[in-house]
Design a protein that fits this description.
434 Repressor (Amino-terminal Domain), elongated, mainly alpha, 107 residues, two-stranded antiparallel ribbon
Length: 107
């Protein structure tokens, strides 16, 4: 990576700062997380709902993860089973919520 690229990446990392007390300015080592789970790039991407191109670019330093991806990668690094469970769980929808909501009493 060129010196300009390194400076731009460092500036982007610094700009992320903190959010709600969580430190998000440290970019995770995506390759270390992935290989620690024993997954290929494509298997890692598929398991966690990521684009394989993004995983490849992050690992090769071509791009940096955005804030939502940083949060997801942080959770994957510390609790991959929680991410698996969340991705398999049914997502609340308006229809599902409407069926389970208690009827309101008239005022």
């Amino acid at each position: 990576m060129s010196k300009l690229g390194q400076r731009l990446l460092a500036s982007a990392q610094e700009a992320l700062g903190t959010d709600n007390g969580a430190i998000l300015h440290e970019f995770p080592d995506v390759k270390a997380i992935r290989t620690g789970l024993g997954l290929s790039q494509s298997a890692f991407a598929e398991r966690f709902g990521l684009a394989v191109g993004s995983v490849r670019d992050w690992e090769q330093g071509r791009t940096a993860p955005d804030r939502p991806a940083l949060v997801l990668l942080r959770v994957i690094a510390h609790a991959p089973e929680a991410v698996d469970a969340a991705l398999r769980a049914p997502v609340p929808t308006r229809e599902r919520l409407a069926r389970t909501a208690k009827p309101r009493k008239a005022a």
